[in-house]
Specification:
Elements lengths: L1 E5 L2 H18 L4 E4 L6 H12 L9 E4 L1 E3 L10 H8 L11 E2 L8 H14 L5 E4 L21 E4 L2 H7 L12 E4 L2 H5 L3 E6 L5 H9 L17 E6 L7
Parallel strand pairs: 1-10, 2-3, 2-6, 3-5, 6-9, 9-10
Antiparallel strand pairs: 4-8, 7-8
The structure holds 2-amino-2-deoxy-6-O-phosphono-alpha-D-glucopyranose (GLP).
2-amino-2-deoxy-6-O-phosphono-alpha-D-glucopyranose (GLP) binds next to helix 5.
Length: about 240
């Protein structure tokens, strides 16, 4: 685990976008693993800027997102598909047919998960995965549990995650209780990972991830075993390291 401390989220965004740019330059048909939440937004802004400036061409890139809420279709303004369109996809030249986000309204969610896991494998696996981290140490929607989930699956969200995400909904009752998420195993297969955390409310999760024992009680701690993970944090998120 390579931990780097930056002065603010803008500096982190530039550094993470540079990793994506390097990935495409080296392999124009590379596969990105993408995340939602506020943490990756400065990265997505910078990725769009690099496209506008003609510095990076995403035409050959394939993307797989980490997760999606059960019950929200792609047009719902709180669906993760919608988030990705608004914050990244419509600002760059990634092809619509190369974009993959789990469907929250699939009639058979378990099958949707199995098909998604297979599709990532068929695409050759993820070259660069971006992650945020929840206050309870979750990555994607892999909540603290008794075991690490090997593959894409349906999950019940914890109160902590529902509480953290309620700011995006009219009321806490509108926050979906379940989600589809790639597993810890899916994430660990990515060839390179960059995890972003900013602000004091992430400091304890960052400490547990970097310094704590590797345990499914803090899902992000498994990244200690990943051979190519960069943790990008600001000083507030790094304050307990
Ligand atoms: C959600 C997402 C995670 C994300 C987390 C933290 O639960 N499923 O992928 O990492 O929120 O979000 P934020 O970056 O807004 O703190």
């Amino acid at each position: 685990m390579n931990v780097r401390v930056y002065k603010d989220d803008k500096a982190i965004g530039s550094a993470a976008a540079a990793l994506f740019a390097a990935c495409v330059t080296e392999k124009p048909n590379c596969v990105f693993g993408l995340a939602t939440g506020s943490s990756p937004i400065p990265t997505y802004r910078k990725m769009a800027e690099l496209y506008r400036d003609g510095a990076v061409d995403y035409a050959g890139v394939t993307t797989y997102n980490l997760d999606e809420y059960v019950g929200l279709d792609h047009d719902h303004d709180q669906s993760y598909y919608y988030f990705m369109q608004e914050n990244l996809f419509r600002h760059i030249n990634v092809k619509e047919e190369n974009i993959h986000v789990l469907s929250g309204i699939a009639p058979d969610p378990e099958k949707e998960c199995r098909d998604y896991e297979k599709a990532i494998e068929t695409a050759g696996g993820i070259d660069l995965q971006i992650l945020g981290i929840g206050r309870n140490g979750h990555i994607a929607f892999n909540e603290p549990a008794d075991a690490f989930a090997p593959a894409t699956h349906v999950v019940e969200l914890t109160e902590s995650t529902i509480d953290a995400n309620k700011r995006f909904f009219t009321s806490v009752d509108d926050v979906p209780r379940r989600a589809l998420t790639t597993g810890i195993g899916t994430i660990m297969k990515a060839r390179a990972i960059v995890l972003i955390a900013t602000g004091a409310d992430k400091a304890e999760a960052v400490r547990a991830m970097v310094k704590g024992p590797v345990t499914p009680r803090c899902p992000a701690s498994i990244l200690q075993f990943h051979p190519n993970t960069t943790i990008m944090v600001d000083e507030a998120a790094a304050s307990l390291l």
